[in-house]
């Protein structure tokens, strides 16, 4: 499984940085990534955790986040907290310390090697760096840049790093010159890299970053996001006892402050505010933060509360689990920020002017539909005020502590429930627009779809599940495609591999192939939901988005999504013939020709004969009607793909569980045909089918159960790594006849009748009239109109809508249709298979009537069993 690796420079188990990483990482987890997080204990020297093993930190994070760290950093000579502190003090802040440079370089080289080694062992494919430009650890930052360069070149991962800066030097205590002065000459600045995409919290942060590094090319805005759900309902077993456990009366208003308890956060302002409210509101103040981080500051605040006479109404509640509902204690016996907000009248953020701490408390209050109050700190207007959010704002130009007028405005808000509701509702609606949880996924998709070349016209989508044995040959065949006069220009196409939870070396083989063939663009995309249909959809959607977002191209050019299968072989001109046919015609879909290599069937002549008869019929009807796509090989115009909503996954119940069926390609083609688009058959574009498809499914073909039974359309996935049935010997004559009859019963309604049912105008085509004969073509058209009117059916494209009329038309016209197949394909096609026993004794004059009953029987599934072999050949 592919891994997202997070590196935090914050060195705390829970902080705004860590919470934002978790929220962003959730988008990757939903795509099938396993999430690892390094909390940065071995990065920051001032958190007293350097080289300290993890303890209970995991309890504060979701179960799907695995805490991890770079292996063997404690073995790097000279690297430790004192060294990091010395470099920060002497080299960064004092502008001296050149004597440290050799040690910095040596340690950075050793750390870089360990980072790469760790990523290799973990199978990392994406990296998120949080707070990455802080110069507190120049050595580690240099090492990380070096490791990214090495790893990116080795695996050709494109921009596989999201480098996010929440706490740049210009907004983190610039008054004390903690990180030197602009332009911070001793800091490791962001650099242009083909492997890194930088993101800032807002436009002001982006502007200041570009002021610092004017030539930085890849930087965008990715704001904090929140799950907008009111916090008014305490979670079961959690918030109900919150007030009781913390000694807060049930009937008093509560002011919430979620913060680190350090001087820069200015919690003293909240205590002065509480004192100013005394006698008017009876409010309590709850401070959620680690009292042990800065014991002197905690002691100072307690003394202040006592001196102002409000010590009995100030509660230091300790660190709470984060705001997001699924991040809290798994046991349910702890409390989260959302539990606190469920009991809060107003949330407070009276921070220092130059210490934003990226404003999570305000965002969390907005998302929870709780009003807030704040100072007008340096970035407040940029993030919130200029967007129209409403709150009492303490103007820092009026003094360092809350003024009487500010205290009055807070008291009015606390005492006026209607005003609180209106303010909270307004902010909540506005917050959903600007900071809704879906924004992260949308922006990530926009930022990290690898740029597509201007000349690229095709994306070949290849779903894979444990295809380590077959994949090298398939990839070679795709890499060695030929055009009209030699090798096909690889700038015309790319390959998108969709890994569907492989447990073998499939992904490693794909990466190795990409590294060995840098001229062929190859992307690996995970799909966690098992099933080739889900994987194909993910790959097609991925390619569609990428192509739609690339730079300006010729508006007349079409872009094609191409489906291939990892266990089949494509001929060397497969892609070129498909591309040429699509370019010279107007069809929305191009369907390939398929064949089996005869050497696999030399000892099975009866099976070979049954297969060939089916494929000969296919060649004739596909030439007439265009056919329907098969995942083994087809191309679709991207605009047509998007117009019908892409590949749809259809679910049915099997043994009490929902499963996705495997005819997504077929149903997709039906929707495209039903939308009025044409489908073209491209016989020169050829795909060799892997004989294991027959070997794994032949018993189901013989018994008519290849597509399930009793109305359940579930075909065995022949790609699962199970031993094939013992079918090296040939079929008996009886088995061969059964296999052929089920194959042709499946084939005829779907490939001879369904096209004209969906597009009756085909019956006006000269070639179609010649195939059916004028009389049969005319009567088919009339009967289709009658059935459509009788069934009150406006649309035959839904999966079950077309089956009943196709089956009815088959029974009514089977003799005539088979006569035309014999005349066109060959006499060996024979006559229609025997009717179902229930129809054999029906009086001729009532035959059509009982055919309808049979085909519409929703209880027995008999019609499905009669027709539903699935055309595995």
TrEMBL record:
Record's keyword terms, sorted: Glycosyltransferase, Transferase
Entry-linked CDD domains: Glyco_tranf_GTA_type, GT4_PimA-like
Broad EC category: transferase
GO terms, molecular function: glycosyltransferase activity
Gene3D superfamilies: Glycogen Phosphorylase B (3.40.50.2000), Spore Coat Polysaccharide Biosynthesis Protein SpsA, Chain A (3.90.550.10)
Glycosyltransferase 2-like domain boundaries: 459-630
Entry-linked SUPFAM superfamilies: Nucleotide-diphospho-sugar transferases, UDP-Glycosyltransferase/glycogen phosphorylase
Domain of life assignment: Bacteria
Pfam families, sorted: Glycos_transf_1, Glycos_transf_2
EC number assigned by the record: 2.4.-.-
Stored InterPro entries: Glyco_trans_1 (IPR001296), Glyco_trans_2-like (IPR001173), Glycosyltransf_2 (IPR050834), Nucleotide-diphossugar_trans (IPR029044)
The protein's name in its UniProt record: Glycosyltransferase
Domain Glycosyl transferase family span(s) in chain numbering: 243-424
